Amino acid sequence: MSGPDDSGDVVELRVHGVSGASAAQVLDLQQTGQVAGDRSGGFYRPRPRYSDSTGAHGVTLEAYRWGDLPSGTVARTLAVVFLLPFMLVNVAIWMRPANPSSEATVKSLCRLLALTLTVLYVLAIAGVALDLVGWRCLASPDCLAGRSWLSWLGGRPVGLRLAVLALVPAAAIGLVWRVSCRPGRSFEAFRAPDQGSSPSRLGTVGQWDAEPLVGRLRAVHVAAAFATLDLVLLLARGAGDASPATIALTAVTGVLLTGCVGLLCTPPLMDRTPGDQRLDRVTRTLRTAAIVLTVVVVAHVLINSEPWPQERGLPGYDPTLAGLFVTQTTLLAALGVVLLRHRRWERGATPMFGLGPLVVAATGISMAVAYSAELVYRVADFLDRDVPTGEGIASGPPRAYTWAIYGFLRALLVTVIIAGLVVLLSRRGRRRAGATIVARDFPNPPAEAGPRLRQIRDAIARARFTEKLVPLAVLYGCLAGLATATTTIGLLGQFPSDVIERNVGLPADAVTFGIAFGSWVIAAIILGLIIGGIFAYRTEPYRRHIGVLWDLGTFWPRAAHPFSPPCYSERAVPELARRITYLVERGDAVLLTGHSHGSVLLAATVLQLPPQVGDRVALLTHGSPLRRLYARLFPAYVDDAALHEIGRRVGWRWVNLWRDTDPIGGWVFSPRTSPTPASTGDPAAAVDRRQRDPCDVVAPPGDSVAPPIQGHWPSESDEPFTEAVRELVQRLGGRAGPPRTPR
């Protein structure tokens, strides 16, 4: 902690990116530093100690480390992997267009799509527990043979089996309910003092208390989850000759589900202020009624003595699953129509073709369907013992799951093939652009620098492929939505192999093999996500690559799906604002330096600072994705108006460093090639400073390797960074002395 006698300094507050770096790495205060070589092998020396005798206007280094907020423990990391579909649908609601006339409709559709994921989650667990185990396996002596842990239920009445096994999906609902209630903390502890009145929506991120909305959404989703379980049991019970009690309970279940849908379709009602206790009581009452109804339904299934229908699968389960897929397809189509209708048709004015929410929501739904289908098929494989996978697909779980696996594999293969074509077809143009930049940066290279120049050219070409990912993402999202639509063919009792053989001529066995292969591909992807999640928590290089999607998704508060991972910006942004305000009020000036996603946190923080605080703040961003990614993905929150307001808030004491070799970061206002500030009257034109990367193409004297290509790596030790720090400190009215650590 800084002592009371440390006031009057210029404090350089560094905020790291998604790498989850340690405080020593962020501050560049390791005891040793590399003086020659590269990352594979090099020379190191002890770093000189920083003096504590710096004057009153010296730079005091301070770091804000937020890397553990979105990650935490390994268990939480794995939870994020399995809750990834929920997170994607939650992100979709924040990707809505900037047009306010479409906001309520897009919110409603995204929240309904999020609700269908909860219903799918329950149906998948119920498909395993009630359909595969309770209805099929427990009625088969071959399946029970050698399974003493399961055979105790064999031969029991069907009602008893289903009532007991209904505890499994009920426990699964309770698990996600419990997980979604974390973290249990007081939001008031992280509120920023004296919030600035920013008209920009980005300034609201982390500022508002999302817990009341999350609590209402949680109550609605829990109610819908239990109502879905009730519906599965009641449809199975009433498949033969439904009794009046079964009909009445089914009607009550329908009313509960209708109430859940109605609440989600009224965003102004759901988004009311935290003080609206009546709405909170309504949602809690709905949840309690659903739980009580589940108890009644289970008891009804247990004690009802009417004979059960004789069917291969659980009665009513297949139509319910197919009906859910029809609903998801309808909602995705409606979302696409709304987005296209409110799209701005000016050239270059619409990021991601205006389909960002549709792309991400369809991807999340596709992933959830793949998860569910794979869970059901892997359990079916386990219960079928030695039955080949292809035969199990043809005779096992619901046909809708078979179509789901086929659709997922089709979307994945088509996207991979087209991505490969895009890589090949765009390589020449990207390399040509890279060669032009290399020729400008290194006009008279020595003859031996040829291989190094080609490496730099290829690095720039790879970095420019980021722009190609946007149409590929749109393509996959549309294919994923189409894959969800094709699952409805299962209602007709058709298998993909039969339909394709009849219409295309491809042998049915080949299609069945492809679906089986797709099932194992899904299993491999899930396993890869789990392993990647573990390594992302334990290993910095994995964290740097995998953390982009992770930190991007959990940056936004839970506004669509309450079971998605908690938002860390609700703490990080107010905490940064509080610290900056404290430093300024005690007499310091603050230089904010943010790398990668850290620049986004600082942008949201600057918009929340009171005007008198912003007068003593400067901003240095490097590797910033504000324009390149966030303006494309979240047009309602990051646009020219928001970026210009950030500049005005800090008195245009803002420098943004960017490199052509960076695949994530880039320019904010102008892609100027000169590393010096522009001389025009527009202050925004002086913000961006391009860094030549690498600094040279030949090894310096005393070294054996050329300077490395930095790409997206932080640049606190580079000369352009220190020059920018020196300039901003002078503009703050201080003197750029040597950095010192706070006491």
Quickly give the structural class: alpha/beta
Compute the number of strand runs.
8
Q: What number is the mean pLDDT?
A: 80
β-sheet strand percentage: 5-15%
CATH superfamily of the domain at 10-70 and 566-733: Alpha/Beta hydrolase fold, catalytic domain
Helix content: 55-70%
* Gyration radius, rounded: 29 Å
For the terminal residues, how far apart are their CA atoms?
Answer: 6 Å
CATH architecture name of the domain at 10-70 and 566-733: 3-Layer(aba) Sandwich
Extract low-pLDDT stretches. Answer: 1-7, 51-57, 184-188, 735-743
Please state the overall shape, judged from the principal axes of the Cα atoms: globular
Notable features of this structure?
transmembrane helix; transmembrane; alpha/beta; AB_hydrolase_fold; 743 residues; Rossmann fold; membrane; disordered N terminus; 27 helices; Integral membrane protein
Give me a quick take on this structure.
The chain has a domain at 10-70 and 566-733: Alpha/Beta hydrolase fold, catalytic domain (Rossmann fold). The chain has 27 helices and eight strands.
How would you summarize the topology of this molecule?
Layout lengths: L9 E6 L7 H5 L4 E6 L4 E5 L12 E6 L9 H9 L1 H11 L8 H34 L4 H4 L3 H4 L6 H8 L1 H14 L30 H27 L6 H21 L2 H4 L6 H27 L13 H25 L14 H29 L4 H7 L3 H43 L8 H14 L2 H21 L9 H8 L4 H31 L1 H15 L14 H17 L3 E7 L1 H10 L4 H4 L2 E6 L3 H8 L6 H10 L4 E6 L28 E4 L27 H13 L12
Helix pairs in contact: 2-20, 3-4, 3-14, 4-7, 4-8, 4-9, 4-13, 4-14, 7-12, 8-9, 9-10, 9-12, 10-12, 13-14, 13-18, 14-16, 14-18, 14-20, 15-20, 16-17, 16-18, 16-20, 19-20, 20-21, 22-23
